[in-house]
From TrEMBL:
Domain Glycosyl hydrolase family 63 N-terminal: start-end pairs: 30-239
Catalytic activity: N(4)-(alpha-D-Glc-(1->2)-alpha-D-Glc-(1->3)-alpha-D-Glc-(1->3)-alpha-D-Man-(1->2)-alpha-D-Man-(1->2)-alpha-D-Man-(1->3)-[alpha-D-Man-(1->2)-alpha-D-Man-(1->3)-[alpha-D-Man-(1->2)-alpha-D-Man-(1->6)]-alpha-D-Man-(1->6)]-beta-D-Man-(1->4)-beta-D-GlcNAc-(1->4)-beta-D-GlcNAc)-L-asparaginyl-[protein] + H2O = N(4)-(alpha-D-Glc-(1->3)-alpha-D-Glc-(1->3)-alpha-D-Man-(1->2)-alpha-D-Man-(1->2)-alpha-D-Man-(1->3)-[alpha-D-Man-(1->2)-alpha-D-Man-(1->3)-[alpha-D-Man-(1->2)-alpha-D-Man-(1->6)]-alpha-D-Man-(1->6)]-beta-D-Man-(1->4)-beta-D-GlcNAc-(1->4)-beta-D-GlcNAc)-L-asparaginyl-[protein] + beta-D-glucose
Pfam families for the chain: Glyco_hydro_63 (PF03200), Glyco_hydro_63N (PF16923)
Residue ranges annotated for the Glycosyl hydrolase family 63 C-terminal domain, each copy included: 298-777
Species assigned in the record: Coemansia spiralis
Family named by the database record: Belongs to the glycosyl hydrolase 63 family.
Signal sequence, renumbered to the chain: 1-23
Name of the protein this chain belongs to: Mannosyl-oligosaccharide glucosidase
Keywords assigned: Endoplasmic reticulum, Glycoprotein, Glycosidase, Hydrolase, Membrane, Signal, Signal-anchor, Transmembrane, Transmembrane helix
Enzyme Commission code(s) on record: 3.2.1.106
Name of the encoding gene: CWH41
A biological-process GO annotation: protein N-linked glycosylation
Subcellular locations according to the entry: Endoplasmic reticulum membrane
Function: Cleaves the distal alpha 1,2-linked glucose residue from the Glc(3)Man(9)GlcNAc(2) oligosaccharide precursor.
Length: 779
């Protein structure tokens, strides 16, 4: 995103090395993780059809059992949840506060290295929030989605599992309640009931055999078991008390130790009913005895990892050094950690159409079919509402993640490129498997091979190229290093160059996909005059652009050309030229045509283009069709894209007009950030009002990034204006996001342009976490 680009970084075209179904590198640090971000807490390895686990809970009063907490849901109304620290490898902690169910739970996750991913443990601590309630039921479960065996048992002190899978080998699991746990008091009338333990048993469990494809439905399966048990217990208690109709929840909603030690068990639920303060540990150990985890050591390990995290966070972002308060640093730390805690591993088939989707009422749409199963390692925008991979979002996520852990970021990027087909297409929304599809309305599930999405994932590739350039690493200098420097130094630099060589073919293929699939219609015989058009347009939405309901031409047509899409293509052309050292002439042509097609001199802005009939057209007298290009101008995010992607020269008067638009309060400027659509636009705040006024952090970040990288440091007539806008906008964004976080304890999908309040989905710990980079000024 830098004017003038990088110095050419010569790369050889290596064979494409990523494909669906590539074997996972079973390293100790990244095999196991909290890779089920759709759950309040869950673990799994980066293996298809393997061992998964998760937490559930519900209050023991009234009908809380009908609202068991498991997957993150907006309707659960938790007042707080999200990671306060997560390093992405071997440590993560979060707090979940559920006022409706009357409980606060903290999870602390650690790992230790060993064979086949090593061992891990999670310590849950917490308390019930109201002494007047009967307490809360805590449930932890394990399930085998594929081949393997599990042997389960429960005694008074713990629950145990011994198992084996082809990929993980032998493993053992312990679930250990703390000795200090308190249990709900049982009324005297309900003591000594035959078949029901009324002595405050610490732990119970049930083993089941369920279809492997149904393991993800753990909550539904548990709820059925719980209901059957409750009916049996209710009859026994009614007989014992001679007809009582109100029963203690701790007795009614308890599991009986059943199905234990049975062959074929592939699901194991462990339950603890508690009151007051409580704690329990879940410990998974691989067969490697050197990676044993002792319960006594968990707190000490976590304490060390916590200190390491805080020191590394300051070293990475320097927020204390920059003078931010403890509360502001906590917010930034939580933002980064929740983004990392939203990393997931997904495997399955997606619904894909074999043919492009017809446009504007044309017939011929093909039936969607489940594609070949594959895996994706990705971050997620929002754990309750968007718990899956989104291509448009991912690039912004990686801008944050790479500043913390570039290797972890590269794993995500490589996984996304592994989802690319031979034509360069990547499905914009990754809905893999039944569990993912259960969260998505049917009409949005099918992915079409002619639907593109903004290629933001290339931001991270560009950043890697800049990092290489900062080290002065080119093909020639690497050869020199190999002969003149110590091997350890060369290894570091050669690895960096090698990563780019791996990725370069994918960037070229992605560009080719855009240039072929999104090409617009030319008004003459000049192909370059065709421009580009987002496929997937409807009357009110252009979902493929990422800007959903942002106003476009009032009547959709194949004659449209979209300025944001042309900007993305020009950006890719520039990046490809930087990576290969060729293509400067093509870039110059694209920049020339961007202005020729989309700059409206009368409105002094970049606009979409559509087609219309000339006002003076006479059907009887004129020989031509009378069709001409007409501008479709809506001041807002779309009209900013040439500047956002650094395609406007610092000395161009076009830049001056764009900056004037940004800082005009009657157009885009607010004291909370830059709004998405001009206040003067007829569509401002109308309809769905998704991208028609609200403030989005990702676009505001791009404004700041482009000002900082391209215009503040470049001498020209608008340098001072660029610096002024940057300083004021940065302060507005930081102040408002912090204020909204302090009042709600959440990050939000978007912010209201009138009062700055957070709105729509929360917690939104995807691109809103770019606020960390805004604070640290890392662009």
């Amino acid at each position: 995103m830098q004017i003038g680009g990088l110095a050419a970084v010569a790369l050889c075209a290596l064979p494409l090395i990523l494909a669906h179904g590539d074997a996972v590198d079973l390293n100790s640090e990244l095999l196991w993780g909290t890779y089920r971000p759709n759950l309040y807490f869950g673990t799994r390895p980066r293996l298809a059809n393997s061992l998964v686990s998760g937490l559930m809970w519900f209050g023991l009063d009234g009908r809380h059992w009908q609202s068991i907490r498991h997957s993150c849901e907006l309707g659960d109304n938790l007042s707080e949840y999200g990671y306060s620290r997560h390093n992405g490898r071997d440590f993560g902690e979060q707090t979940m506060r559920d006022n409706d169910q009357g409980v606060e739970i903290k999870s602390t996750f650690i790992k230790v290295p060993g064979d086949v991913g090593g061992s891990w443990a999670v310590r849950f601590t917490g308390r019930t929030l109201d002494e007047g309630t009967q307490g809360v039921s805590l449930v932890y479960y394990f399930g085998l989605e594929g081949n393997g065996t599990m042997s389960t048992m429960v005694d008074d002190s713990m629950a145990r599992v011994r198992g084996r899978t082809p990929e993980l080998g032998k493993f053992s699991i312990r679930v250990e309640p703390a000795q200090s746990n308190q249990y709900p008091v049982v009324p005297k009338d309900f003591s000594n009931i035959g078949g029901i333990r009324t002595d405050g048993s610490r732990i119970n469990g049930v083993g089941l055999k369920v279809p492997k494809t149904e393991v993800w439905r753990a909550k539904d399966i548990f709820q059925d078991v719980l209901l059957d048990s409750a009916r049996t217990r209710a009859r026994a208690m009614s007989e014992h008390t001679k007809g009582a109709s109100q029963f203690p929840g701790s007795l009614l909603f308890g599991l009986d130790n059943a199905g234990l030690r049975k062959k074929g068990t592939n699901m194991f639920f462990v339950q603890m009913n508690v009151q007051g303060e409580f704690a329990f540990d879940v410990i998974y150990e691989c067969a490697d005895k050197t990676s044993h985890i002792d319960s006594v050591a968990i707190d000490a390990i976590a304490s060390n990892r916590r200190k390491e995290f805080d020191a590394r966070f300051e070293a990475s972002f320097s927020l204390r050094e920059k003078g931010f308060s403890k509360a502001q640093i906590e917010m930034a730390r939580n933002a980064l950690s929740s983004l990392i805690g939203g990393i997931g591993y997904f495997h399955g088939s997606g619904l894909v159409s074999s043919k492009p989707k017809p446009e504007f009422g044309a017939e011929g749409e093909s039936e969607a079919e489940l594609g070949k199963p594959y895996s994706l390692f990705a971050t997620t925008p929002s754990r309750p509402f968007f718990p899956r991979g989104f291509l448009w979002d991912e690039g912004f996520h990686q801008l944050v993640l790479r500043q913390w852990d570039s290797d972890l970021s590269l794993e995500v990027i490589r996984s996304w490129f592994g989802a690319m087909d031979d034509n360069g297409w990547i499905a914009r929304e990754q809905i893999l498997g039944d569990e993912a599809r259960s969260k998505v309305p049917r009409e949005f599930q099918v992915q079409y091979p002619n639907f593109a999405n903004p290629p933001t994932i290339l931001f991270a590739v560009e950043a890697m190229a800049e990092q290489q350039l900062a080290h002065g690493i080119t093909a020639r200098s690497v050869d020199m290093l190999q002969g003149a420097m110590e091997e350890s130094v060369c290894d570091e630099h050669c690895l960096l160059r090698g990563k780019l060589e791996d990725l370069a073919p994918y960037t070229a293929r992605l560009l080719s996909f855009f240039q072929k699939s999104q090409l617009g219609e030319s008004m003459d015989e000049t192909p370059s005059n065709a421009g580009y058009r987002w496929r997937g347009r409807t009357e009110n939405h252009t979902l493929t652009s990422g800007l959903d309901d942002y106003p476009r031409a009032s009547v959709p047509s194949t004659g449209e050309l979209h300025v944001d899409l042309y900007s993305w293509v020009a950006y890719m052309v520039r990046l490809n030229a930087e990576l290969t050292g060729t293509g400067d002439a093509e870039l110059a042509l694209h920049l020339e045509m961007l202005d020729k097609i989309h700059w409206n001199e009368q409105e002094k802005m970049y606009c979409d283009v559509s087609t219309g009939v000339r006002e003076d057209y006479d059907e009887l007298e004129d020989e031509d069709s009378g069709v001409e290009r007409v501008f479709v101008c809506h001041r807002g995010y779309v009209s900013l894209f040439p500047m956002l992607l650094g395609l406007v020269s610092p000395d161009s008067d076009k830049l001056g007009h764009i900056l004037d638009m940004i800082e005009d309060p009657e157009e885009l400027w607010t004291e909370f950030g830059v709004r998405s659509l001009s206040k003067r636009d007829e569509y401002y705040g109308q309809g769905e009002n998704y991208w028609r006024g609200p403030i989005w952090i990702n676009i505001n970040y791009l404004i700041l990034s482009s000002l900082h990288r391209n215009y503040m440091s470049a001498e020209g007539p608008y340098q001072g204006q660029a610096r002024s806008i940057y300083t004021r906008l940065r302060e507005n964004l930081m102040s408002n996001v912090f204020e909204q976080y302090q009042s709600s304890r959440f990050f939000w999908e978007q912010y209201n342009p009138e009062d700055g309040s957070g709105q729509r989905t929360h917690p939104f710990t995807g691109w809103t976490t770019l606020i960390v980079l805004v604070m640290s000024e890392k662009y």
